[in-house]
């Protein structure tokens, strides 16, 4: 899936609306309603990811954490690993800040899916997510914000 900006999408939709109303004299109310539903179908709490040759829609709440492999971001869920064509900075903006936290330059975690937090060296932490054995580091850069996010 190619990255897109909402601004360009809105401009294109406005252009299509203008074209539709000029070309169709008998523009039906139901058609307008369908177009509005399509336009307003911004999957605010979901994200589209690649699952082999298919695109899968994942709820934000299913995400355990996000990491980077090579030059691609990978979303880790209970059900598998999914590649997404957004970098971590773009994902950090897209994901709700009250539920997701950047712990490291290569990791974003879902705060609601934390299972345990262990102290690590240099006053940093290692986070273990629910239903996952992976350990996610909290770098020194993010320790203070992480303590605030989890209420320490």
Short description:
InterPro entries: LytR-like (IPR046947), LytTR_DNA-bd_dom (IPR007492). By secondary structure, this protein is α+β, with helices and mostly antiparallel strands. It has helices at residues 6-23, 29-40, 88-94, 143-150; strands at residues 46-51, 54-59, 63-69, 72-77, 80-84, 100-104, 107-110, 114-119, 125-129, 135-138.
General description of the model:
GO terms for molecular function: DNA binding; phosphorelay response regulator activity. InterPro entries: LytR-like, LytTR_DNA-bd_dom. Keywords: DNA-binding. Residues 47-152 form the HTH LytTR-type domain. It is a single chain. The chain has 152 residues and is α+β, with helices and mostly antiparallel strands. The chain folds into 2 domains: 6-40; 46-150, OB fold (Dihydrolipoamide Acetyltransferase, E2P). The protein contains 4 helices and 10 strands. The chain has helices spanning 6-23, 29-40, 88-94, 143-150, and strands at residues 46-51, 54-59, 63-69, 72-77, 80-84, 100-104, 107-110, 114-119, 125-129, 135-138. Strands 5-4-3-7-6 form a 5-stranded antiparallel beta sheet. Strands 8-9-10 form a 3-stranded antiparallel beta sheet, with no helix packed on it. Strand 9 and strand 10 form a beta hairpin. The radius of gyration is 20 Å and the shape is elongated. The relative contact order is 0.11. Residues 22-28 have low confidence and may be disordered.
